[in-house]
């Protein structure tokens, strides 16, 4: 693999492998093997792993190194329950600043989601749907709550990758376009109900069972991935 890959490209490749379960929960991520696989320094790999750790996708323990986070059934329920409780609360504040430009911005995001769904790119779809939610939370003006929801969305991405299916991020759980229609009308009661139902549906789509770990050939895995 070319050593011209940026840290961002390496981050996306590792994240994609985790979301697509090629790197299962609990899989160790040795810096030396990843360095060899990507043809990059261990310093670059360490930065990427630290970023993934901040997003709760990876855990890093002293003397043990990094490994893919292994969300439990309890954690999965608590993360989704927290989102169900918090995200609808922010909608009245979001509507105070909602504008045509915001509507257009989020509709472009929905178009990207639908493109990823049509191309069956589960990794991109999971990331895009999470981005939709945490960018929406940022509009509330409550930076503390928005930051918390962003972290919950990152954790949800791993949870959906592990326990979910394509139905967990598809229109089966509610079309974000329909939600934007509601926001455009300024109907905060309906918007709150829609959001709660949407998140409850995502939670109910999860199949709470853990994946088995297995040996990973990092060089083979990342040399055969598309150079996207």
Automatic annotation (TrEMBL):
For this UniProt record, the keywords arranged alphabetically read as follows: DNA-binding, Transcription, Transcription regulation
The keyword DNA-binding is assigned to this record: yes
Task: Supply the SMART domains for this chain.
Answer: FCD, HTH_GNTR
Q: What CDD domains is this protein classified in?
A: WHTH_GntR
Statement: the UniProt record of this protein carries the keyword Zinc: no
Question: Per its UniProt record, what Pfam families does this chain match?
Answer: FCD, GntR
Q: Could you tell me which residue ranges the HTH gntR-type domain spans?
A: 4-71
**Protein's name according to its UniProt entry:** GntR family transcriptional regulator
Task: Say which species the protein is native to.
Answer: Psychromonas aquatilis
């Amino acid at each position: 693999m070319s050593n011209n890959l940026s840290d961002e490209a390496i981050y996306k490749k590792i994240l994609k492998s985790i979301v697509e379960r090629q790197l299962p929960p609990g899989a160790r991520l040795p810096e030396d093997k990843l360095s060899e696989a990507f043809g990059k320094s261990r310093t670059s790999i360490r930065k990427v792993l630290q970023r993934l750790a901040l997003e709760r996708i990876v855990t890093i323990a002293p003397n043990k190194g990094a490994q893919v986070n292994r969300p439990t059934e309890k954690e999965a329920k608590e993360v989704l329950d927290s989102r169900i409780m918090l995200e609808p609360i922010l909608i009245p504040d979001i509507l105070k600043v909602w504008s045509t430009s915001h509507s257009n911005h989020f509709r472009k995001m929905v178009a990207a989601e639908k493109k990823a769904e049509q191309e069956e790119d589960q990794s991109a779809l999971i990331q895009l749907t999470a981005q939709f939610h945490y960018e929406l939370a940022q509009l509330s003006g409550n930076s503390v709550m928005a930051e918390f929801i962003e972290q919950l969305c990152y954790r949800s991405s791993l949870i959906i990758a592990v326990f979910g299916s394509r139905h967990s991020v598809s229109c089966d759980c509610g079309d974000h376009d329909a939600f934007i229609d509601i926001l455009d009308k300024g109907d905060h009661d309906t918007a709150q109900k829609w959001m709660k139902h949407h998140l409850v549906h995502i939670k109910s789509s999860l199949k709470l069972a853990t994946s088995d770990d297995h040996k990973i050939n990092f060089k083979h895995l990342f040399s055969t991935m598309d150079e996207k």
